[in-house]
Amino acid sequence: MSDHQTLYDLVVIGGGINGVGIATDAAGRGLSVFLCEKDDLASHTSSASSKLIHGGLRYLEHKEFRLVREALAEREVLLAKAPHIIRPMRFIMPHQPHLRPAWLIRTGLFFYDHLGKREKLAGSNHIRFHPIDSPLKDDITHGFEYSDCAVDDARLVVLNAIQAQEMGAKVVTRTRCLSAQRQNGLWRVELENAQGIYQIKAKVLVNAAGPWVAQFIQQDLQLKSPYGVRLIQGSHLIVPQLYEGNKAYIMQNNDQRIVFAIPYLGKYTLIGTTDNEYLGNPNHVEITEKEIDYLLDISNKYFKTQLTSAHIVATFSGVRSLCDDESDNPSAVTRDYTLALNHEFEDEAPLLSVFGGKLTTYRKLAESALDLLSPFFVEMKKSWTEKALLPGAENLNSIEELVAQLQDKLSGISHELATRWVHAYGTRLWLFLNQATSVHELGQDFGHGLYAQEVDYLVEHEWAVSTDDILKRRTKLYLEFSENDVFTLDNYLIEVHERRLQRDVA
Fold it and tell me: What are the residue boundaries of the FAD dependent oxidoreductase domain, all occurrences included (predicted)?
């Protein structure tokens, strides 16, 4: 493929939450932006989280007050920006006096209630459990309750990518950055996709490669990384619903760690996460037997319903790329982010690298990144993302109202499917319905509420290529699909991609 040699203000490497956050913010400030991701959007760390937008109650023990304050404020901001994929959730912490005294928890929750602005979320309180209706073991008699939020993490990434593209950014997946070199005050960036190798140029290069951030600097840029990276593996179990209700539980363990039990997709409970040093290839992270035993053990210490490995429906694992603060304890390594700007000479093209960070603070991280880069773009517009709605939140009055509208306009749709669509797409669902008035007009039925028209939309507008892109990251239907179902969808996607290829050639 011949060199494009297109010049962009910003080239962003990495399609996780930090990469798309920076790309969105920059595009909205009037910069020309190119973002590339070597796999699918959110295909690694950003889809392997505990699915929470939270202040990080346990970070208070490590005196990370700045991070907690910022994260607490961002809960409210993000809840307003994307109420279809983010929702308030109450968290119950059963009290175990031998692990943390009640006064310490009350003090922590007081700070949690008051460190950041809190308008929509309820404050904390003390609660008592009644043995008859509590899912917890009878010897657990009281605890504490507080607020945080749950999120569809992968869709948060995709919605930011859509917004970046609508602001003028070019977003490409399955495109690897092979190398980048400074040349005549610019970056010459070499990229590879299925069609071949090509080049673009950039005034600034942003390294948001997550677990590969230091490797990218050392191997692809041939530079020295300013910080070391600690890869911390976090694994989760998905099991059948452990208890009734929509509240999460936060379970303390003897090692001073905490593990969540979170209602998931209406019929499951998500249990996680672990915190272990990871030394392997970030492309191939898998839960270990030791982690499975650890998570089952802590759940069984708290809940009446006892779990074995036979109850596990699915597992997932990811690695968090944290800036190395030389802590001996993986759980104590800072979750805060560090932005490293490499620009030693006036005529040298800048490099900005992102170390660490968490889902909740991605927007503030992006703002900080653009503030650092502002001297290089004197005409750049001001920050804008705090009040801007993410795609699907436009004209969304309430989830319930939109579900009712959808059921009224599309005959044959179940309440379950309407709810899934509203939570995934918000008001953007009308785009892929395309004037359909019945589910029978939506094309091939792959089962479990997935129709051809939704698949076509995901391929055309959300960078979906494979069944994993659609089932694991865009819809979460992988938990329902059989091997035969997946095979059928695979064949359909082959046909879709062949049609697109023929259309592009024509």
Answer: 9-362
Sketch the domain layout of the chain as residue ranges: 6-45+155-228+335-376, 79-151+230-323, 399-505
From CA 429, how far away is CA 402, in angstroms rounded?
A: 10
Same fold, 6-45+155-228+335-376 and 399-505: no
Q: Mean pLDDT in the chain?
A: 94
* Superfamily designation of domain 399-505: Alpha-glycerophosphate oxidase, cap domain (1.10.8.870)
CATH for 6-45+155-228+335-376 (1.10.1790.10, 2.60.40.10, 1.10.3720.10, 3.50.50.60): 3.50.50.60
The pLDDT tens digits of the residues spanning 218-237 come to 999 999 999 888 899 999 99
Given the structure tokens 């600034």, which residue do they identify? 204
Contact 217, 205 (CB under 8 A): no
| Number of DSSP helices (H) and strands (E) in the chain, helices first | 13, 20
Q: Phi and psi at residue 184, in whole multiples of 5°?
A: 55, 45
pLDDT (tens digit, 9 = 90+) per residue, 82-101?
999 999 999 999 998 888 88
Nearest to residue 177, comparing CAs of 33, 38, 355?
38
How far apart, in whole angstroms, are the C-alpha atoms of residue 225 and residue 217?
6
What one-character DSSP code corresponds to residue 327?
A: -
The answer, yes or no, to whether residue 112 has pLDDT greater than 80, is yes
Strand pairing partners for 450?
Answer: 447
What pLDDT is attached to residue 328? 56
Is the pLDDT assigned to residue 56 strictly greater than 90? no
- What pLDDT, on the 0 to 100 scale, is given for residue 117? 75
So what's the pLDDT on residue 8?
98
Contact 201/10 with Cβ under 8 angstroms?
Answer: no
Which of 39, 32, 42 has its CA nearest to residue 8?
32
Which string of b and e fits 123-160 if b means at least 16 CB within 10 Å? Answer: ebeeeebeeeebbbeeebeebbbbbbbbbbbbbbbbbb
Tokens in use for 212? 């590969």
pLDDT band at residue 2 under the 50/70/90 scheme:
very low
Cβ atoms 20, 166 nearer than 8 A: no
Planar angle of CA 285, 363, 231, nearest 5 degrees: 25
Determine the Cα–Cα distance for residues 336 and 333; give it in Å rounded to an integer: 9
With 70 as the cut, is the pLDDT of residue 115 above it?
yes
The architecture (CATH level 2) of 79-151+230-323 comes to 2-Layer Sandwich (3.30)
Query: DSSP letter at 286?
Result: -
Q: What is d(CA 374, CA 275) in angstroms, rounded to the nearest whole number?
A: 36
Per-residue burial over 6-29, b if 16 or more Cβ lie within 10 Å, else e, is eebbbbbbbbbbbbbbbbbbbbbb
